[in-house]
Amino acid sequence: MAYWVGIAFLAVALWFVRSAIRHRQRAELKLRSMADAGVEPKELHQSLSILADVAPALVTLFLFAAGALTVVAFFVTRAHHSLSLFDLAAYVGALAAYGFWLNTRTTYRVLEA
What we know:
The protein is mostly helical. It has helices spanning 4-37, 46-76, 85-107. The protein has one domain.
């Protein structure tokens, strides 16, 4: 069982990072094309804009707490007998990659005008 869970979490983490980078590239390209056409991107409603700015920070805080609690629980329950440190590191990496993905998706949001 050891290493298989880590490989799965590593694959998920790599997908999140790749997806975030591709989204950022597409958003920058779309913003450039809109600027070349003289079209201003649409803004979010003020209440949604505040939520979109605050939510990623809160989710990142909760992801950090979940990762820290998982690391503590891993050693307290002696899970290293059935899982490896690679599995633990891949899980924490997947949490970090999800945080990166979420922050990228909310930072580089382009609304059609």
